Amino acid sequence: MPKPKNNSQPKNGPTSTLPKAPTGITGLDEITEGGLPKGRPTLICGSAGCGKTLMAMEFLVRGAADFNEPGVFFAFEEMPEELSQNVMSLGFDLKSLERKKKLHLEYVHIEPSEMQETGEYDLEGLFIRLGYAIDTIGAKRVVLDTIETLFGGLSNQALLRAELRRLFRWLKDRGVTAVITGERGEGTLTRQGLEEYVSDCVILLDHRVIDQVSTRRLRIIKYRGTTHGTNEYPFLIDERGIDVLPVTSLRLDHESSDERVSTGVPELDSMLDGGVYRGSSVLISGTAGTGKSSLAAHFARESAEAGERCLYLAFEESPSQIRRNMRSIGIDLGPWERKGLIRFVAARPVLTGLEGHLAAIHKQVRDFDPKLVIIDPISDLSAVGSERDAKAMMVRLIDFLKTKQITTVLINLHSGANNFERTDIGISSLIDTWIYLRDIESGGERNRGLYVLKSRGTAHSNQIREFLLTNKGIELVPAYIGPEGVLTGSARLTQESRDRASAVAQEQELQRQRRAIEGRRKSLEAQIEALRSELEIAAAEEKLVLRQDEDRQTRIADDRDAMARSRRADLSSSNGKSRRKQK
Amino acid sequence: MSSKTDRSSSRGASTASSNRRVELRLYIAGQTPKSVAALKNLKRICEEYMADTYELKVIDLLQHPQLARGDQIVAVPTVVKNLPVPIRKLIGDLSDTERVLVGLDLHRAE
């Protein structure tokens, strides 16, 4: 019965036969597969300052507030006022819970200087107080923090041990789910060996400082009658309590989406055959100043424009610096931030340990529920822990984000020029799409080049493309690949103008040829025209000749008629026509 | 508040602190052998050393569990001496008279 916000449910089945009391502590219910053993005592042990009291308190507060299980807190070390103040910063309002009769805080104080042991005694007084407190509010949960303090105030150790044994049995009989805290001893889990008495569930908290960075970890040492996570789990204490990070889902069974997400650079999308897959991991790597963050900003803007939330984790620059820098290339993330579609979270890598960062990222992701997470850069994280730790963290992080179908953009800064096709923390095998940005040095210039080193499941371009950072963002320009390699910058411009010049020359030649052909055509047409007019003249002449001939014939006939008339010859014998005329 | 109050008569004046009132509360949890022994031992010591100046309340926590918190009772039986200051707590059945006297600041150097 984990709280609803945990998405990985503990498996039902044989493990659920043991009734459990959910702690409500983020992550802890997943590790314990449901919570602490209900109606039994649990020991939380650890060294000073590791968060025992807080974990116990959160167990009570969550129980009272979320699970309707009132709780009793017996503080042996701190005054209730101090305790209230201490946990107020974590958002626990103990006073209000006390007023609602959901919580009972009681300070149990033993002052050795006032004490005098004068004979046989027992701890019935404590039992009575506890019983009275439980009955007053109908408590289902009890915390004793830290009961070992009794050993400092009372000298009869044998009696104390017997009484503690009786106390734990008594708690079980009362059916309350109890948490007993204990300080870690030399070579033992607790100074007084409480683990001997509380054998149902033992949780060890640890607060280690490695390379001046502290990390809190939690481990379940034993949990009788149930399966549980056995690893060390990092946890955080932040403004909302304890946040345990379960590393349960390293099973490689996450869904993979066919949906493509745009990179925000159209040319890059086409290089990637339409963008990157949703929920995939994208690595943008390159040496300093190659435009990695700028490219990431394109992802962020594109995501926001599509109405999807983007979480930008900045480990190197402050959010305002990123905003300013991105404005200089025409990407204003501010409005999106105000609309709640982009959230910047900035932290120095050395602020906490790797686990701390991991837990913080988990928390942010749960709070903000983004579709895109940008980590800028991951290389700084390796400064916090060893390379192996950093890799382990990245595996967990990428895995976590993948199970949530969150596209991840990781930025990696290369420190050296050698061996550039590997990341500093060796995570290349985890990456689905790797976009490599590099300087291309030639002709006394550095220019920016981009290529897709790999992209799983995508027919991606194999071209090295030069890109420019303009005031409208990243612009990919067509690459010139000549015998000397990729031409960029001025060399590309020279090549372009050379190309333009030859194009102009070609055009001119073409026009010259076109003009020549035109001329020939025109002269031919003129010739045709001349011939045609000649032909017309000839035809006219022919007509004239014919008419003259006809006129001549007519005149001859007329002349003959006239002659005949004058001769008064027989007209009929000479010409029928003339004879008919006469009739 | 108290279940039982014993006020001694003012006959014995043999104690050193005759003019100082001593307030004592004995917390017990039922009539266990330890409780009975404690009450008996306490009364004996009081009568002997501060017969006219002590005021004793016996509080049975089984009947008044809410009273355990105020005097920070953990072990029973416990005798709390509130007055005169400093506050002292004697735990146990008070069978060790020497320690009781030291605890109540009544021990005279001999």
Structural summary, described in words:
The complex is a heterodimer of chains A (583) and B (110). Chain A is an alpha/beta fold. Helix content of chain A is 39%, strand content 23%. In chain A, the strands form 5 sheets. In chain A, strands 5-4-7-8-3-9-10-11-12 form a 9-stranded mixed β-sheet, sandwiched between helices. Mean pLDDT of chain A is 82; it is low at 1-15 and 578-583. Chain B has 110 residues and is α+β, with helices and mostly antiparallel strands. Helix content of chain B is 23%, strand content 25%. Chain B is built from 2 helices and 5 strands, in the order ββαβββα. Chain B has helices at residues 33-50, 97-103, and strands spanning 4-7, 22-28, 54-60, 78-83, 88-91. Chain B has a 5-stranded mixed β-sheet with strand order 1-3-2-4-5, with helices on one face. Chain B is globular, with a radius of gyration of 13 Å. Strand 6 (115-117) of chain A pairs parallel with strand 5 of chain B.
Produce a short descriptive summary.
Chain A is an alpha/beta fold and 583 residues long. Helix content of chain B is 23%, strand content 25%.
Radius of gyration of chain B from the CA trace?
13 Å
**Oligomeric nature of the chains:** heterodimer
Largest sheet of chain B: 5 strands, mixed
Number of helices of chain B: 2
User: Which structural class do the helices and strands of chain A define?
Assistant: alpha/beta
Low-confidence stretches of chain A: 1-15, 578-583
The portion of residues forming beta strands of chain A comes to 15-25%
Largest chain-chain contact? A-B, 26 and 34 residues
Helix content of chain A: 25-40%
Order of the strands making up the biggest sheet of chain A: 5-4-7-8-3-9-10-11-12
Rounded Rg of chain A: 47 Å
- Secondary structure: number of strands of chain A: 25
- The overall pLDDT average of chain A reads 82
Q: Pick out the low-confidence regions of chain B.
A: 1-18
- Helical percentage of chain B: 10-25%
Principal-axes shape call of chain B: globular
Give the class of chain B from helix and strand content and strand pairing.
Answer: alpha+beta
